[in-house]
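Lab notes, practical 5.
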Amino acid sequence: MRNINKIPSFEELLKPLPAYSPKRWYYRAASLLLQTIGMLSEGIKIGYTQGFDSGMIMNYVYENTPHGSLYIGRLLDKAFLNQITCKAFRAVKQIVQDALTTYLEEGKGKPTFIMDLASGKADYIYDVLDHGQYKNVKVLLRDIDRVALEESKTIAAGRGLLKQIRFEQGDALNVQGLKEISPKPNLVVEIGLYGIIHDDNLIRKHLFDLREFLNPEALLFNVQTYNPQIELIARALKNRDGERCVWHLRPVENIIEWAWEAGFREAKITMDPYNIYAVVMMKN
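Output from the prediction step:
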């Protein structure tokens, strides 16, 4: 996978390329190749069946173990997992784990309730809890994807964590769902959510909703600020709804400003080594 031009704007990515554009045929050919031979790769297959914006593909990338049909499938899968976007995903996972560990250490063992509003499998939370010293931590994992939650529950059972974790299907942006969450969380986690929301106003409103209805003492999120593969992703890959996988790049300062307006403070920013994602912890 390669970038063949400068990064276009989000508005440009939403528009189809004209029929005479060489890039249109380049990305169409790339998509055809990925949806035929590429399906021998387990990761690419998951992406096209579950969505390249789904929790399922993110967690497959986290695992970073090539699988596929025949030898060529495993080679393709290895190449897929070695893409810069996938490397950034894995770097974000480690940054999030470190942020969660730091937050819990600063709590000095006090009872803590963590809620992940778009969790997928939430392996990063399991890896933190797996050490066994955070017995006073309870977790609510919410996601719109029921299959991802079922797989997550299986993982939690295998790690002996079911006593600390509960699962709930729900849309992170649904206000009524936020109102019904009980007890209120100390920490809200939203990883991989904002990039798939196209409307800036929806994110701004959501941040105000978090503050009004949940009022957590801290908020942990990430923002995709740059990606040299963003046009390939938008024009050749599919999202969970089977449509073009258009991600919205934003300056991290934008999200921080909106969160500040909602009442969150003390933004601590950590960039991944590829300068694609910013991971931000803010306090209330």
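Observations recorded by the TA: The chain has twelve helices and seven strands. The mean pLDDT is 93.
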